[in-house]
Amino acid sequence: MSGIAGCVQNHNKPAIDTPAEEKIPVYQLADYLSTECSDIWALQGKSTETNPLYWLRAMDCADRLMPAQSRQQARQYDDGSWQNTFKQGILLADAKITPYERRQLVARIEALSTEIPAQVRPLYQLWRDGQALQLQLAEERQRYSKLQQSSDSELDTLRQQHHVLQQQLELTTRKLENLTDIERQLSTRKPLEISRRIRRTRVKSPRHPPMRSLLMSHKPAHLLLVDDDPGLLKLLGLRLTSEGYSVVTAESGAEGLRVLNREKSRFSYQRPADG
């Protein structure tokens, strides 16, 4: 019996070599997930403002507001405390504010960041990083917009230059076509014009041939002496034929040429018949 009792006593004693269980500090946070968004902004106090779950719920409720509602709600928190400044930032973050307004908002909260409790600081830093990304995105969009405007302006300039060059090309083409037509007309009229000029030249040419050509020719030519002058005939080396014509040859010499040129009005020329 005693042996059984001994076994029982040993069984009830805790083991000496069993390690002590780790003690987790009991600290419970209020969960604001079930809090209505219409009531979340009115809550305040240290236990609420140091609870990151409260701020997460506030961010969730701010996302559900329209931009005009967010701006109207944010006007109620302008006392300059870190709590209300953070609320303003959360409300205005998605209210379609300008990059300048967002930059000013982040700067105001950052100036009060030393007052933010340690429990809320990690959440605030995540929110601040998100705002920095929003600002960077806005800058990239602005840069892209400027590049787009510059490209559009360059394209407009190129279009205008192309239009001007096209007009110049069309004008030059018309001029070339006109010149081609004129050249074609001239080439067609040229033979006719030449023949007309030849006819006019023949009509206007003197009746008497050049005396030098006449005297230097080896073929006999007939000169009708209008005023028979034996002395002139002798000087020119001419002789009167039975037909009443005087025949001149190259034998007349230089003196005869000069006299004949001087007295050519006294002669009429008749080309001899061939043969």
Automatic annotation (TrEMBL):
Domain annotation Response regulatory: ranges: 222-275
Gene: qseG_2
Gene3D superfamilies recorded: 3.40.50.2300
Pfam families for the chain: Lipoprotein_20
Keyword Coiled coil recorded: yes
SUPFAM superfamilies, alphabetized: CheY-like
Entry annotated with the keyword ATP-binding: no
GO biological process: one example: phosphorelay signal transduction system
Protein name as it appears in the record: Putative lipoprotein
Ranges in coiled-coil conformation: 130-175
Alphabetical keyword list: Coiled coil, Lipoprotein
